[in-house]
Structures are given as C-alpha cells and as structure tokens.
Write a structure and sequence with these properties.
NAD(P)-dependent oxidoreductase, Epimerase_deHydtase, single chain, 15 strands, about 15% strand, NAD(P)-bd_dom_sf, alpha/beta, 12 helices
Length: about 350
C-alpha cells in the first residue's frame, strides 16, 4: 500500500459485478451520509462503475459537511460526485433534496451513544421513517449492523439472516428500530429495499485490524474476552452494497455483509506481533460467545471478497509501522455490553 491515493484507488475500484449493476440500474443515485467512513469510497466506486458502464448519471452525496465548503466536498467534487450540505433531521432541508430513483442510506449514530441516547434514537429510529416518506418512489439500499444479533457461540459460524434478532444495549436496539421503520414503510408504501447487516468493514485508516495492530505496535493491552470477530475489506463491502440494488424487494431483502472467516483476536495479535517484532500484551480470557455474522447468502450472490484477509493483515501491519494516516476512531469491537 504505497500511500493514501493508492488506498483511495483500491477502495473505490469497481468489480465487473458492480459495473454490470450500474449498467442495468436506471437513474441517478443519492448517497445519504456520504461523509461517513465508507461513504466517499462507495460514491467514488459508483462513479467509476457508471462511467465504465457508459451510464450517464448523477452521483449526489449528502452530508452535513460542517464548516462550509469542506475538504471532503472538494475531494468528492474532484471525483465527479455532486455534494449537498444538509441536516437530514431538518424536514424542510430533506424535502429540498432532489428526487432520485436510487438512494443509498448510510447515515446513523453509534459511537457516543452513551450519554446521547435521544439523538441516537432520532438518528437511527426516527430519521429512516421520514426518509422513506420523502423517497417513497425510490429504490433504497440501507446500511444496518450485525449488532442487532445476540452473541453466538464462537464455533457456530454466526447467525444467518433468518435468525431472530436480539440486540444488546441501546445502540443495537436503535439499529433494530431503523430496520423496523424501513420494513414498515417498505410494506405500506411498496418501497423496494435491501437492508445490509455489516460486520465490520476495514481499511488502513480505521477498523478492527487497525485497532489490534496499533495496540501491538504501541505495547498496549489487548483484551481477548471478545475472542473472535468477522471483517471484510471495505472495497468489497462497497461492491456488495452497490450490487444489492439488484436485490431490493418489498418487504425488504436482508443481507449479512462480512468476510467468510471467523477470526481470532489472539491469533491476529500474534500475527501482528511477528510482523512488527513485538510481543502482544494479551489480557483476559476468551468468552464462549461473540458478536458474529454469517454472510453465506451474500457470498452466493456476489462471490467471495476480492481482497483476502491475509493481504489486509499485511497491508495493515505495514501501514501502522510506517505511521500511515489513522482516523483515531476506535471500533470498540471488544465491547460486550452494547454500550458505545
């Protein structure tokens, strides 16, 4: 991984499947919450895939973009993505957004939930209802989270889409509220929707692997009580999200999005330690359960991730050792009580 530009190129590189989807898709695309961790690269992938498919469409990214014309806005504009500054909780501002036949819903709140519970519920439970009413004639791909599942046995492979939801903590419950609002309005207004339960997208600047590698590099303790997890390279998560426009339905189609492996925190810490010449500071003991996600269905629909986990581990170790950009936004993946 040479530098930040190389990373951005890889994260937004469309697969043939994404190009095919963009060739079939009719109309412009509105990305709500484009300013988040995944929004810029997903929007750029949609732009690149649409251009490769010869599909003339607008890709429009919506976020608060605090502080006037931000650096992110300029970057998105340079990539051929239009931008609109908007507080989506402002009904009048939401109503002014352009009508588009395709909407990617990426907005939500996780970190900082504790102490801001009311805002969390407004963002995760109330906002989807007014977005559905505003874009009742659109196709909607909406990001959800595997946090709506209960903890699973570490050897179980994780819950599939048909497993009953049982979230732990207010964040997980508010995500379930998000899904229920999309389900309600999809049924009553006949909105074609796909719900994406994601665990966890990773790249060089943030994610579970960055958290682990950084702790190993700095000699910080690594709690292994949440002993295993799933991840997927963010570029592959972007690709599967875009291709899920082919699977929108009413009532909503639910898809788990993650990699095929159940990864050991201890084994990965030790792998980073070998790569870095460090001895990981392991603390705690692995619990019998963990927050997991079984994505066999999405793998059948879209294929396995293009970037294997071993490659991501190698890139992450190199990036952390050379002091690459870090968003300094810990995932708190080790949290077991649902308090973020």
């Amino acid at each position: 991984m040479r530098d930040l530009d190389h990373l951005e190129d890889l994260l937004s590189e469309p697969s043939e499947g994404v190009i095919d989807t963009c060739r079939r898709l009719d109309g412009d695309v509105l990305v709500l919450g484009v300013g988040g961790k995944m929004g810029p690269s997903l929007s750029r992938m949609m732009r690149r895939a649409s251009d490769a498919a010869g599909a003339k469409r607008r890709i429009i990214g919506v976020s608060r973009f605090a502080g006037g014309t931000s650096r992110l806005q300029r970057q998105l504009n340079d990539w051929g993505i239009e931008t609109i500054a908007c507080d989506l909780l402002d009904q009048a501002a939401l109503d002014r957004l352009p009508d588009t036949p395709n909407v990617v819903y990426m907005t939500g709140m996780k970190f900082g939930t504790t102490g801001q519970q009311s805002l969390t519920w407004a963002m995760n439970g109330f906002l989807p209802s007014i977005v559905c009413q505003r874009f009742s004639r659109s196709r909607i791909v909406a990001f959800s989270s595997g946090n709506i599942y209960a903890m699973s046995a570490v050897c179980s492979g994780g819950p599939t889409e048909g497993v009953d939801t049982a979230p732990v903590g207010e964040y997980g419950m508010s995500v379930l509220a998000r899904e229920r609002m999309f389900e309600h309005f999809s049924r009553t207004l006949k909105i074609p929707v796909t719900l994406l339960r994601l665990n966890y997208a990773v790249e060089m600047r943030y994610g579970v692997l960055v958290d682990l590698a950084t702790k190993v590099w700095r000699g910080q303790p690594i709690d292994v009580s949440m002993g295993v997890f799933n991840v997927i390279w963010q570029g592959d998560a972007n690709a599967q999200a875009i291709q899920s426009f082919d699977h929108v339905a009413s009532p909503p189609r639910v898809l788990n999005i993650t990699g095929p492996e159940t990864l050991s925190v201890r084994a990965l810490a030790e792998a980073f330690g070998r790569a870095m010449g460090k001895q990981p500071a392991i603390v705690g003991t692995e619990a019998a359960t963990a927050l997991l996600n079984n994505a066999q269905l999405s793998h059948r629909l879209f294929g396995y991730p293009r970037v294997p986990i071993q490659q991501v581990v190698e890139w992450t170790a190199e990036w952390v050792m050379k002091g690459g950009v870090n968003l300094d936004r810990p995932t708190h993946f080790e949290t077991r009580d649902g308090r973020f």
